[in-house]
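Box 3.1 — From sequence to structure: TonB-dependent receptor
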Amino acid sequence: MSSDTRKGLRGLKAVGTPFKLSLLSVILTALSVTGTTSAQTTATPVARPSDDATNQSARERDRILLKRNPIASEYQGNETPGRFFSAVTDAEGVDFRGQFRLSKGRAAAHNAEIEANLSYQDVARQYTPGGSIKLAKSFDRWRLQFNAQRNSLERIVDFYEARWLSIDAPEAPEQQALLLGFPRYSQDQFDTTSTNMQWRADYVLSQHTYFTYEGMSTNYDDIATRNRLEYQIGAGTIDSAELGDDDSTLSDVSVSDSRIRRYFHRMETARDIHRHRLGVNYETDTSAFEAGIYYSRWVNERLWLPWNFVDQGLTANYSIDSPYLPATTVTNADVFDTSQSWFANYRPTLTTTTDTDYALVTDWSQQFKFAGRPVWVGSGITWRNKERDNDNYRSVYTATDNRFSLTQVLGSNQAVAIMEDRTTIPAGMDLLLGETYLAANHEQFNFNPAQSFLESIQDIYTSEETVSSAYIDAYQQRASWFWRFGLRYEKTKTSTRGAVSGPTEAGIANLGDQITSVDVAGLTIEETFSHFDAAFVEGGNSYQHLLPSLELRYQLSASTRFKFNYFEQLMRPQYFDTVRYRRINPPTRTITEGSPDLEATTIINWFAGLEYTHTHVGKLYAGVYYNNIADFFYDSRVTEELDGIVYDVTRVENGKDGFIRGVQTYWSQQFTDTGLTLIDITASYTYSDTEANLADRSIAMPERAEHRLMLNLLVKNNQWQYTTNLAWQSEALDDVGADAQQDTIREKVLSWNQSFSWRFSEHLSTKFSLNNILNYPDRSYLSEQKRVVNNLYSGTTAKLSLRYTF
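Predicted structure (token representation):
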């Protein structure tokens, strides 16, 4: 990848990055050659996905600015059943203190650790260096800590995508059938680096009082390129087709007057995150007080350079004998001949998303006597505010009569085998030639100001969410039982501002502030177009909730305990989902739009279970749970016809109500008499029976699998340690279609990661880890498994590290 282009995007950011960051990057990279590493004497914790953003799944990469869904199966961890959110905790589980991982500094601390590593993906076959530094030092009342980590990885991800269209079945116009309209075969390449820093300073004022300043910083960059071949069968004329055994799927289809879209992009992402926390703590045996403030700024800048070329007049057919990779064939042309693939459009886009967060918190707790035993009573007040500002400009270039073919910008690229060599896509555009070719051949590009105006404003919006809350909480340990009761009040206020456009007769100009001009790549485009109007429209919402919580534990015997809990949660909409906007993407024939009337999801959680502990059995937990859910969110997918072309329309909507109920089990055991230092096993299983009610039908709860199984194993000896982590879940509903046969189902998920570490001496050790060993594909399908809409292979990644502590 070209470092010059990466620097170009970074150069768009504010100048003045501290020298220590640049120097640190050099040091951490150099560690890949000179570093050594330390012994691990305790069990290695499972890394959070954010620990190494360069290795995140494609699914997570696209969710980087999203809130997490607490009822989704993929976010359920390998933990004891009956997870409890007391009144102390924000209803969404949000607490800015959870962003910081360094604990209070130790007195007389004086230690350092350095690490060097190499990362590798089996598909890209490129080794990339990284490293880390950890420092801790105490000076009288001061306790200082500093951690820094640099990761890098080059990856290749292959995937197949499809759009299925609902049409009249052959010879049965009254019956609807699904046509594989737009099968896509793609390869993405990622070149990613990430530098993460954490620091903390504690000042011990007295035996009971200390001040804390803590910060963290992340600088993340990636360059992603895509080579995609899309057969636009849905744009052709059907000559023949067969209706499958399910009476709803068209197979062995042949079409004429079809097209191919060859799509290529270069996407550069530069993300800077800075978080700061300042607090004061007072702690004694019978009381505690904390006050803190928090500030965070997250800037995500993305430069997107998408090119489209089109082949026309094609005769094609497809077969779904292998649904995970349908075979598509052109019979009257050679798809590997790019001389008849003509430039269609180019849409360079720069999008900058800025999130600014503020929070204040006070917590107080005091021990009293109640019924002869100590009882802790606590209270607190929290205020947090998040503002999102999304800026965007897009230049739309279309073809002229003086057209050019893909052959002229291929460079030295060649055809490439993808999907584990199951299919081959033609040579793609050399994307580094794009801007140069545009600059030298202006006469072959038509700049479209009206479309540039429309597509730029679609991604300009602001959104703000303010949450004010207060709580009271009390708990007590009795002789054989424990109780905790709490009550939390939360008030949420939101405000949004987004762009709306439409025909002049729709009265858009009267909805808000008329958009009179927009800046696109330094060019000001005035809104003088007669066929549409555009305006910024404001919106907002305000609501409040009273959230009780109750936990009871009763010791039935020395080894058995009963547990019961009840608590309520909120799940607020995404910051941009409530913005009134409508984003139309003509090349992909897709539309996304906001839902200004979204309500927060409320979740009422019940759990009852038993906990059994025995030396020979370990810890065995089992329980039943019931979650009552109202106004749940789901991704709706419907179709809409614009100017005779069918578009897929997606938006987030509220369902009515529903439930999740089932059984949770957990087992944990440690073995120390096997000749090894330790064998530690933890396993958990969750069964979920779900129902969610829409206005017209009932579905399974979106993103919740019926079965979820997780297994962690640690085997440790004096010199070495082995860990393995296995997770499996059954299929789950991802997106809700216009009817049941167009619901999108995510197939079962299986992931397996493992690592092995070896200690050479007291100070030096090495570690080797493998992620996604099975390279199990991330697949989804449209109601029936023969209608696959996604099939993605992410590859296996490996990391070898050396660590030295002194």
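Summary of the box: The two ends are 37 Å apart (CA to CA).
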